[in-house]
Specification:
- The complex is a heterodimer.
- Chain A has ten helices and no strands.
- Chain A is mainly alpha-helical.
- In chain A, helix 3 crosses helix 10, helix 8 (177-184) crosses helix 10 (232-261) and helix 9 (187-209) runs antiparallel to helix 10.
- By secondary structure, chain B is mainly alpha-helical.
- Chain B contains three helices and no strands.
- The chains are: A mainly alpha, B mainly alpha.
- The interface between A and B is medium-sized, with 31 and 33 residues.
Chain lengths: 267, 96
């Protein structure tokens, strides 16, 4: 499609969309006037029923915990898919037998690649690296805080997982590639990810043993405002945090594996 | 709605337009991250701090990170292939 045809199509359908959009926007409820019945009910009941001051996470991990379980397994499946698609097809030890690939090996080493460094950019200054160490520490603490206080303040497992994984990416950005590889390439990580995902399901199954419905909040609720309160919500949030951290680290490492190892693809 | 909220909405619109109009991939990722941050600010202003936090982690961190990782991987492959070709040529030259 050429530029002119596209522009003409836009000039035809753009105003139609704009008209519909304005029409829809005119009929929105005024700002701050919520019309649904459930929001007010949850906001009133979450603290009383679940001892959770953050109503959103009370919904995510308790009232509609089933949906979040599905979402978590969407993430799980997506990570498995990425790792499957980007898997390394060639085992490095086999290639040495082939006579033709010797030249390729020379070419690879010709890029002056020391294991554990990224060759295609200049080294960072010491100041930037020192600042990044500080930032990494702060990021870890912030991630743990967000993850453990999900039932009290906005946040929770999903956000905490991404923040914690970002800390490891900061380690990589600080040129400490070996440390990043040690964190992210560990085989344990895959097990941790699977455990985080399955623990959520297991917490859901647990109430079935005493005859309660799936994902019922049967744990002691504790004092409102306490870190160890609201029963299932805090526990599930922590499990999700573990799963998301491992998932993001796995995806990041899968993408970077080739660059870190400095291996040239054969095809 | 205050002028501040209206200003944020306009900024989100402008930055979204900027993301679409940016053609260089690297600049586009950075503008995408900026757009994610502005959207998070918008959510925060409209009293949805949970969504704002999710938006920061997903829209401003995870999504640009994933796109950047994919692009760096593709660039590395292209560079590596070019380097392999040069290496072979050099070697053949030495033998001659």
């Amino acid at each position: 499609m050429s530029e002119r045809v596209r522009l003409r199509l836009f000039l035809v359908f753009g105003p139609i969309f704009l008209g519909l959009y304005v029409y829809a926007a005119m009929n929105l409820p005024p700002w701050g006037h919520y019309r649904g019945p459930y929001g007010d009910a949850i906001a009133r009941l979450a603290v009383y029923e679940r001892h959770a001051t953050d109503a959103v996470n009370a919904i995510n991990y308790d009232y509609r915990g089933m949906d979040t379980l599905g979402e978590e397994f969407i993430l799980f499946a997506a990570v498995v898919g990425v790792m499957l698609l980007l898997r390394r097809e060639d085992a490095p030890t086999k290639e040495k037998k082939k006579p033709g690939s010797d030249a390729d090996r020379e070419g690879a080493s010709g890029m002056a690649r020391v294991p554990g460094t990224v060759a295609d950019r200049p080294p960072l200054s010491e100041t930037v690296r020192a600042a990044m160490i500080l930032a990494t520490g702060l990021t870890v603490i912030f991630g743990l805080y967000i993850g453990l206080h999900g039932q009290l303040t906005p946040g929770g497992g999903f956000q905490a997982g991404v923040i914690l994984a970002t800390a490891a990416v900061l380690v990589y950005l600080a040129d400490n590639t070996e440390a990043f590889t040690r964190i992210a390439s560990a085989r344990v990580l895959e097990a941790v990810e699977a455990m985080g995902a399955s623990l959520y399901a297991l917490i859901g199954v647990l109430p079935l043993l005493i005859g309660a419905p799936f994902l019922t909040n049967i744990l002691p609720l504790g004092t409102t405002g306490d870190v160890f309160s609201s029963g299932n919500i805090a526990l599930i949030s922590a499990c999700v945090g573990v799963e998301v951290t491992a998932a993001f680290l796995l995806v990041t490492y899968t993408y970077l594996e080739e660059i870190i190892r400095g291996e040239v693809p054969e095809k | 709605m205050t002028w501040f909220g209206a200003g944020i909405l306009v900024l989100v619109g402008v930055s979204g337009f900027a993301v679409v109009r940016t053609r260089d991939v690297t600049s586009q990722i950075i503008s995408l991250g900026f757009y994610g941050m502005l959207t998070a600010l918008m959510f925060f202003f409209f009293q949805a701090p949970d969504v704002a936090l999710s938006q920061i982690t997903v829209g401003a961190v995870a999504l640009p990170l994933m796109v950047m990782l994919a692009i760096s991987r593709m660039r590395f492959r292209a560079n590596a292939k070019a380097a392999v070709g040069k290496g072979q040529q050099k070697k053949e030259g030495e033998y001659e």
